[in-house]
Design brief:
about 200 residues, globular
Length: about 200
């Protein structure tokens, strides 16, 4: 479990398709990421949020962690678009007793979004994202929480399959959102509470 408070940026060292004979439990892709100082306290088997996707460390050496991704993760998220040299958001899993400063995030990406507009002015930066899977849209509400590439953010507007989010300078400087452009894809995880409320509403 995570909170959406990004601890730092990692650098992707390599991405490769696993040969069928080397695939483990359906793993499709191997990704190696340099974690830098965030390697501290981690060990093989630990869960780490990489751009909002919960991945398990399968190898750890000299600050570089290897992760294996199954087909479902690659297809449902933007992880298949990541290439060597890219920066990624890193958050280590929440420990019992830690402060919950964002919102509860599972690291289970629901769908992807496409950045359609970025507006910057002296009052701040605002982005509009199109939610690509319309089926999750009923669970998204104004002033609610959403995870965008693993970042806990608050929604402003929710309409016409688009959402808008205001970003403070700190978020732009310390996450991958500061590197994004119009047309880029992002991972989306809807709020856990909204998900369960929507699923338990009476069906018409």
């Amino acid at each position: 479990m995570f909170t959406g408070i990004i601890e730092g940026l990692g650098t992707v060292k390599s991405v490769s398709k696993l040969k069928r004979k080397n695939k483990v439990a359906g793993a499709d892709t191997k990704m190696s990421i340099h974690l830098g100082q965030l390697r501290k306290g981690l060990k093989i088997g630990n869960s780490v949020s990489i751009n909002g996707a919960c991945l398990t460390i399968v190898r750890l050496y000299k600050g570089i962690a290897d992760f294996e991704l199954v087909d479902e993760t690659v297809k449902r998220s933007c992880m298949g678009l990541i290439k060597p040299g890219d920066k990624v958001n890193i958050e280590r899993s929440l420990r019992l007793g830690d402060r919950l400063e964002g919102h509860i995030i599972l690291g289970h990406v629901d769908t992807t979004g496409t950045i359609e507009e970025i507006s910057t002015s002296y009052t701040g930066t605002k982005i509009w994202i199109k939610i690509n899977d319309v089926s999750v849209f009923p669970s998204i509400v104004p002033k609610g929480s959403i995870a965008v590439d693993g970042i806990s953010l608050t929604l402003i507007e929710v309409k016409n399959q688009r959402v808008s989010i205001a970003l403070i300078p700190y978020t732009l400087a310390n996450t991958t959102l500061g590197l994004k452009s119009r047309g880029d894809s992002v991972n989306i995880e809807i709020d856990l509470i909204g998900r369960y409320v929507t699923n338990n509403l009476p069906k018409n």
